[in-house]
Prior knowledge:
Radius of gyration: 11 Å
Shape: globular
Strand content: 5-15%
Order of helices and strands: HEEH
Amino acid sequence: MTAPVRDLRTIAAAFHGTVLEDHPVEEGIGGTVIVDEVDPGRLLEARPPRDRL
């Protein structure tokens, strides 16, 4: 099952104002979402607040 492009855009829009803004968002295996090019040293900072999801 593939995620509609608009859903991926909605997910990407939820990252606005966070360190994940402007990172590529793709669909992974089994409908998972992959956010690419995240600096491993900023993973905790990159985690979006729950109310944005």
